[in-house]
């Protein structure tokens, strides 16, 4: 610790044994990995909680590395008992922390193993100090902040929370960027029943889309991947992140190769060590220092994985860490790995391709030709020969690679269809044999654990460093104390006492020989301190070695200690019973059991609201205006019509937006629809529903309703949120209709506080990336974009699934914080499940409008009202809904969407990862088990 800052840990990913070993060999302070269930990377190899976990933790702890298990998904009611068993296994085997999304899971873990550290996943969608405080109040000791925050915003959060988190703040510094806020993406759920909140992301953000502006297609040339960000690389920002108070720097990539893990870990290990050295010796630590990474390492990072786009965008960016840069983050030419740009095609001649070279290329390199259509088959292959302007064969080895000039590049016979290679095509090097060889060496143990010392000759660089202190006086026993870098200590003493030496006494040189290299222990000697040993004394070398063994064994025992204090009894029923008791003591349950079902409608325009106010039987209107303009007048109008008015709050609150709570309270609404834990925490701190604030002005906190974005997926999380002061709660969209009914039944009387959304356009993406700013302006943020969102309507049209069809048109709306929400084109309707939901205890039903024209509002309300009162059949309503047109005058249809009760995708049915496709990595995994 230097001043108020600390040296951040390097946290590396491991999708399997090869990746885990690569992380350790290259200097990771900690590794995060998933088990066979309940983690957000279902496609990774992962580890078995009983067969693998003991060996994994023993291997990590022997090397002085912490192990974090990811359980960063939402849990269903049917899985709670199985989850409890897994948590007991995690605690029993000495896992250092679990990374969690579900607040119900947090509550279970605290009940099962109170001493087990809990890290709040980025899937918790935490972007403010209030969100951090909410997580801390649940028992979370570290929070992984949203990737959409800038360094300045991170520093602001850290300053406000101070020492509130025992293990501080963690942020992502490298790897793939989700375009949607983590925990708020429902595209996979909407289009394939594969929930991103369940580890089954289908990567819909990496698909091509057409841009419709005011109903017309905007020509975009080769820009098609409008939601596909380049990857994150923040190595040059490490000093600023230290200054911001970040505790852990996280590398994304549990689906990546061992080579990727080895290289990224090594690069960030070196950067952190150098930045920390500069930080402690220079007052200019807050300035960017490009010397933190060499040009060679930069190229290697691009080579191992980068979604490069063109000559000016190499696929690696600072993301949002430097603030919004919408023209940089998403370029839209390519959604996948490209590697390094090495040239541009000048023409095809003599059975080869003439390339204007701009980057290193040589014989044996793998290249691909980029025509600007990555969705089609692309030509590429291994370079067979590089010929210069004099006809000489050049660049035959890595020492001879060419970097500029015009060269004829030839490939193997029939390797390319040369007719599909054209002038102007970009040439990307996707594989470099020399880099591959270097990375394989890193994976096998050629890395240096920078920051863990140099190590003695012959000792494994992957071994954990220890310091040994030797002390003793004449006539007393010699003592050896071994201490690792985590502060754990082992002690050993000789049987005999120190005697006066008859010749040369013990010194540092002789003690090093006696203590040895610690081979076979998983440890390596960093430092030997003999300052407390009396000179001119002697004890046999055999006794010194025995004392060393005793000290090392004690140290290793401490490193392998498992968690203590686990609860003996089953916890699920205890938690639920306690929550029922708490809720029963409140007033919210009184008189609600016999209520008739009722409908509320959510309006996003003033025109929709005015139509809804005409419906006499309608009791509640929810206002979800994207701009604050007109909201005050709309609230007054709804209240004047004799209806209850509910105002929706943002799904995301960043540091500069945290004071918006005052604006919402000033509206005087009957209820607020709370969409983030940060807002819930703030309103709770102020006294909760019913509290009256009277500092400068008298403000009253109204009734609080929780929305789907709080991600209540099981009875524990739902009950806990209701205990937080919510009068009503809409469960997450990850539950299908059957599971919604299960949840309602499991809550007993509490089921009447649940709200089912029975008509909506599912909000498939919620993004910091602004489509309007990027593609309808030349600006980078709201400061210079000209605000095209105020004068244009935008839809994203996906690819049609069948020929002779147009794709679906998904509306994009920008909110007051410039965040975009992409809404599914097809309306999702629960017409076939309303009766089941009523039987399960639901009494609150919601209809959500997006861009429906005003003339559709009353018919939609009337149709669902008739359904609830048995004046219409589900089939009749379904047929009518299919014909409704969107704002562009096109019918998009209706679907059951996330409500349909279908089998969930299994891990074995998902697309295999690179490591699963490469047999050598499986062999390495087996070898890692032997080497543990």
UniProtKB/TrEMBL annotation:
Residues 904-932 are annotated as: Disordered. InterPro entries: Pept_U32_collagenase (IPR020988), Peptidase_U32 (IPR001539), RibuloseP-bd_barrel (IPR011060), RNA/ubiquinone_mod_enzymes (IPR051454). Residues 427-560 form the Peptidase U32 collagenase domain. Signal peptide: none annotated. This is Peptidase U32 collagenase domain-containing protein. It comes from Guillardia theta (strain CCMP2712).
């Amino acid at each position: 610790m230097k001043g108020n800052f600390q040296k951040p840990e390097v946290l590396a990913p491991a999708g399997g044994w090869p990746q885990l070993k690569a992380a350790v060999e290259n200097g990771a302070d900690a590794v995060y990995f998933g088990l066979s269930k309940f983690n957000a990377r279902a496609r990774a190899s992962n580890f078995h909680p009983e067969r693998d976990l003991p060996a994994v933790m023993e291997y990590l702890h022997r090397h002085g590395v912490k192990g974090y298990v990811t359980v960063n998904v939402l849990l269903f009611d049917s899985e709670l008992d199985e989850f409890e068993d897994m948590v007991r296994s995690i605690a029993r085997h000495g896992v250092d922390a679990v990374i969690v999304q579900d607040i119900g899971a947090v509550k279970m873990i605290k009940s099962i193993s109170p001493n087990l550290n809990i890290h709040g996943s980025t899937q918790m969608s935490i972007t403010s100090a209030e969100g951090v405080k909410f997580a801390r109040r649940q028992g979370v000791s570290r929070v992984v902040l949203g990737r959409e925050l800038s360094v300045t915003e991170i520093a602001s959060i850290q300053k406000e929370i101070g020492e509130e988190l025992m293990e501080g703040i963690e942020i992502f510094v490298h790897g793939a960027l989700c375009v949607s806020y983590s925990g708020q993406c429902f595209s996979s759920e909407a289009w394939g029943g594969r929930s991103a909140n369940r580890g089954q992301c289908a990567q819909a953000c990496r698909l091509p889309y057409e841009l419709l502006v005011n109903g017309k297609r905007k020509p975009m040339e080769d820009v098609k991947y409008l939601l596909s960000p380049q990857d994150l690389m923040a190595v040059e920002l490490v000093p600023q992140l230290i200054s911001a108070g970040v505790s852990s720097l996280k590398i994304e990539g549990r689906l990546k190769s061992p080579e990727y893990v080895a290289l990224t870990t090594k690069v960030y290990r070196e950067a952190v060590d150098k930045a920390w050295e500069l930080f402690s010796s220079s007052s200019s630590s807050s300035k960017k220092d490009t010397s933190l990474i060499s040009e060679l390492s930069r190229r290697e990072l691009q080579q191992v994985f980068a979604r490069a786009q063109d000559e000016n965008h190499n696929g690696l960016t600072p993301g949002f860490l430097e603030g919004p840069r919408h023209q940089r983050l998403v370029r839209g030419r390519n959604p996948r790995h490209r590697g390094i740009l090495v040239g541009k095609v000048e023409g095809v001649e003599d059975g080869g391709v003439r390339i204007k070279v701009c980057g290193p290329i040589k014989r044996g390199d793998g290249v691909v030709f980029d025509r600007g259509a990555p969705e089609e088959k692309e030509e590429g292959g291994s370079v067979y020969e590089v010929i210069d302007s004099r006809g000489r064969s050049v660049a035959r080895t890595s020492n001879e690679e060419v970097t500029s000039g015009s060269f004829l590049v030839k490939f193997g016979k029939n390797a390319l269809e040369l007719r599909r290679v054209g002038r102007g095509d970009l040439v990307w090097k996707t594989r470099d044999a020399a880099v591959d060889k270097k990375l394989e060496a890193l994976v096998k143990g050629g890395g240096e654990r920078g920051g863990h010392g140099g190590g003695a000759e012959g000792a494994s660089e992957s071994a954990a460093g220890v310091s040994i202190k030797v002390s003793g006086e004449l006539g007393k026993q010699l003592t050896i104390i071994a201490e690792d870098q985590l502060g754990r200590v082992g002690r050993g003493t000789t049987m005999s006492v120190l005697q006066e030496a008859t010749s040369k006494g013990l010194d540092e040189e002789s003690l090093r020989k006696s203590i040895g290299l610690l081979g076979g222990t998983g440890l390596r000697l960093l430092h030997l301190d003999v300052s407390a040993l009396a000179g001119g004394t002697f004890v046999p070398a055999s006794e010194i070695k025995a004392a060393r063994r005793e000290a090392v064994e004690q140290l290793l025992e401490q490193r392998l200690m498992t968690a203590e204090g686990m609860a003996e009894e089953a916890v699920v029923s205890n938690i639920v019973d306690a929550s029922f008791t708490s809720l029963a003591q409140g007033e919210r349950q009184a008189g609600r059991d016999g209520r008739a079902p009722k409908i509320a409608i959510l309006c996003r325009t003033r025109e929709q609201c005015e139509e809804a106010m005409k419906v006499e039987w309608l009791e509640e209107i929810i206002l979800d205006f994207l701009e604050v303009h007109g909201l005050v007048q709309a609230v007054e109008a709804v209240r004047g019509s004799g209806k209850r008015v509910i105002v929706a709050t943002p799904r995301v609150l960043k540091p500069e937006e945290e004071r918006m709570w005052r604006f919402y309270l000033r509206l005087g609404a009957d209820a607020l629809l709370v969409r983030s834990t940060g807002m819930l925490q703030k309103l709770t701190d102020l006294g909760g529903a019913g509290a009256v604030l009277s500092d400068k002005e008298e403000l009253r906190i109204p009734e609080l309703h929780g929305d789907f974005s709080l991600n209540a997926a099981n009875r524990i999380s739902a009950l806990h949120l209701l205990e937080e002061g919510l009068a009503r709660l809409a469960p997450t969209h990850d539950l299908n209709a059957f599971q919604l009914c299960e949840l309602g039944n499991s809550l007993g009387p509490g089921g009447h506080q649940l709200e089912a959304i029975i008509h909506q356009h599912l909000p498939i993406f919620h993004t910091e990336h602004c489509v309007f700013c990027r593609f309808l302006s030349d600006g980078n943020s709201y400061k210079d974009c000209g605000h095209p969102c105020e004068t244009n309507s935008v839809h994203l049209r996906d690819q049609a699934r069948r020929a002779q069809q147009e794709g679906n048109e998904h509306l994009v709306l920008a909110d007051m914080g410039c965040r975009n929400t992409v809404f599914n084109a097809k309306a999702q309707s629960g017409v076939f499940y309303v009766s089941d939901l009523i039987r399960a205890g639901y009494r609150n039903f919601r209809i959500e409008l997006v861009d429906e024209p005003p003339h559709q509002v009353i018919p939609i309300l009337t149709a669902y009202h008739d359904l609830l009162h048995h004046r219409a059949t589900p089939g009749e309503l379904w047929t009518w809904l299919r014909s409704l047109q969107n704002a562009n005058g096109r019918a998009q249809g209706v679907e059951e969407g996330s409500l349909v009760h279908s089998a969930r995708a299994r891990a074995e049915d998902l697309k295999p990862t690179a490591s699963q496709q490469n047999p050598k990595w499986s062999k390495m995994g087996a070898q890692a088990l032997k080497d543990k």
